[in-house]
Amino acid sequence: MQYYQCSRCDFIYTETPYWLAEAYDSVITRLDVGLVYRNEQMAGLTQAVITTWFDKYAQFIDYGGGYGLLVRMMRDRGYDFYRQDAFCANLFAESFDITEVAPFRAELLTAFEVLEHLPDPVAEIEKMLALSDTILLSTIVQPAPTVTPNSWWYFIPDTGQHVSIYSKRSLQLLAERFNLRYYGGMQDVHLLSRKPITHSLFRFITRPRITRLVNQFIPQPSSRLLADFNQIARQLPNQQPQ
Q: Which Pfam family, any one, appears in the UniProt record (predicted)?
């Protein structure tokens, strides 16, 4: 596997990734032991960002949503989330995939640990922006422009799935390409949006302790757990909702 680096923005990318079919034979790799922890962390952060700047009663999309765990967690918190993922089985949010509802434009789209998997980030961001004007994403930016697969774990060449490694500057230029504002936060989280917000406040809100305080004191919508149960029950043959 060969890596190349942009001299303008330090973005690191691989040669044409001919190995992707093999790499995604198992979409979620055995090395992703942090999947549940990450979803717990991102659910709280997403809630804090939405309640601070966005309409919490709107519709939302988790792009590249994997097993649907984040969608289920957000719906349990009261947020009308739907999953998008063309490659992974939907285990936890079945019936709440964007393919199962009428097309809509999301108030906000999340894309956690997605960008590093994209061989063509520009094309995929275009697809995301067709669904929402705001993308809340996570990816770990390079700690230094001199990182290599031998010096930084995030390359994870053994899986063959991380084919794009970003610098802060490369994310800024990606936002500019689409006339979006870039906001860098804590917990490796970034916001690309047409919505103007205070950058310093975004960094503050995305601090774990502050995120917890925001979620503790700002009311959230009522959980969708029972309503979702009844909706799915009505779809099943010979079943009556409770």
A: Methyltransf_23
